[in-house]
Write a structure and sequence with these properties.
80% of the residues lie in helices and 0% in strands. By secondary structure, the protein is mainly alpha-helical. It has one domain. The longest helix has 49 residues.
């Protein structure tokens, strides 16, 4: 009998190891396919636009602007400053949402973990999610509110997405009201209308959540937790979102600074395009006003999960958006601006290395954080 028990235990250990190895291989395969798709799209887009018919392609910008040093370095420095400030604002916003759920993170902890999340989201997209790491580390000191920490990250993303939709709707309204967009780019009008409707639907859902009492959300979370662990996590998330709905002042403040940060992101992108684009040929670069419409659309497109960090689809998307305003002559400028803005984002994310070092010294390592994926939900 003891030998049978030992053999069964050994078989179970082997099966567990094989299952774990299979899960790891599957994750690596999915990651490889995602990066392969993103890099393949980027290479295809660059190849097609290197020397397109009619000129004014990437080759023209490379040889006449970048290799010759005809770059507006002052604009690049200003763009970097705008992006650093905008990134800091996103961290402050998350801190406000954290405190709204009564998670007593200090300002320094919020700042440090926010930069760790930026570092992993930007430089290691798709491998260890920066949002997951940030939420897990934030909740380690408060295990009874672990799901609330995750909910703060999810709601932070929802708030940012709604802010982009709202900016597209407002900028599109002024463009339509001023005239010219309907005739120049009818397809862009359709996109603007779709995004505006989505923003309105999200706003209606948010208003309806105000009809749900907090006590109902509490009971729902307890009931779902008794049925299954997964349902319990979903119940906690629902309760946290209802909590946010009953804290309109905190959400309004977060929404206000969100709009400030997104304005800075738009300015940053425009300055990169101005610094690297073919500025003497003004028809290749849309004006600043247009960028308050184009950049949020590009940021939404880059959020597609199939492309880590929006690689490939971002360059294709901004090139396509520029053509809607200035025609084919602007495609290369849009792509170069996207690539330049991406590199600028990498440089900004490197500031998170200091925060990551402080996190390592405090004993909160990413391996343990990511290993608690199931616990976090």
């Amino acid at each position: 009998m003891p030998r049978l028990v030992e053999n069964a235990a050994a078989d179970f250990s082997v099966q567990s190891a094989c299952a774990g190895m299979g899960l790891l291989v599957r994750k690596l395969l999915i990651l490889f396919l995602k990066y392969g798709l993103a890099i393949g799209l980027l290479v295809a887009v660059v190849y097609r636009q290197w020397e397109p018919p009619g000129g004014n392609g990437l080759s023209h910008l490379w040889h006449n602007r970048i290799l010759t040093g005809e770059i507006d370095w002052l604009a690049l420095v200003a763009a970097w400053c705008c992006q650093v400030t905008a990134t800091g604002i996103t961290i402050i916003r998350w801190g406000m949402l954290i405190r709204a759920l009564d998670l007593p993170l200090s300002g320094w902890e919020t700042w440090r973990l926010g930069w760790v999340g930026i570092l992993f989201n930007t430089l290691l997209p798709g491998s260890v999610g920066g949002d997951l790491v940030k939420a897990t580390l934030a909740a380690r000191s408060y295990p009874d509110k672990r799901t609330f920490a995750v909910a703060s990250v999810i709601f932070d993303r929802i708030l940012a997405l709604w802010g982009l939709f709202a900016m597209v709707a407002v900028a599109g309204f002024f463009r339509l009201w001023g005239g010219g967009m309907a005739e120049a780019s009818p397809s862009l009008v359709v996109v603007v209308h779709s995004v505006a409707i989505s923003a309105l639907v999200m706003l209606v859902v948010w208003a309806l959540l105000g009809l749900v009492p907090s006590l109902w959300a509490e009971e729902l979370a307890k009931t779902m937790a008794r049925k299954a662990q997964v349902l319990g996590v979903l119940g906690e998330l629902a309760r946290a979102i209802v909590w946010y709905r009953h804290r309109p002042l905190a959400v309004a403040k977060a929404m206000f600074i969100t709009s400030c940060g997104q304005v800075l992101f738009v300015l940053s992108f425009f300055l990169v395009a101005k610094a690297l684009g073919d500025n003497p040929m003004k028809e290749t670069l849309p004006g600043l006003g247009w960028h308050f419409l184009l950049v949020p659309l590009g940021m939404v497109l880059m959020a597609v999960p199939l492309f880590p960090g929006g690689l490939g689809i971002g360059e294709w998307g901004y090139g396509a958006l520029y053509t809607q305003v200035v025609g084919e002559t602007g495609r290369a400028t849009g792509m170069v601006a996207s690539l330049g803005h991406r590199v600028l984002g990498w440089l900004v994310a490197l500031l998170g290395l200091r925060a990551w070092g402080a996190t390592r010294l405090s004993g909160q390592n990413v391996v343990s954080a990511s290993g608690k994926n199931s616990a976090v939900g």
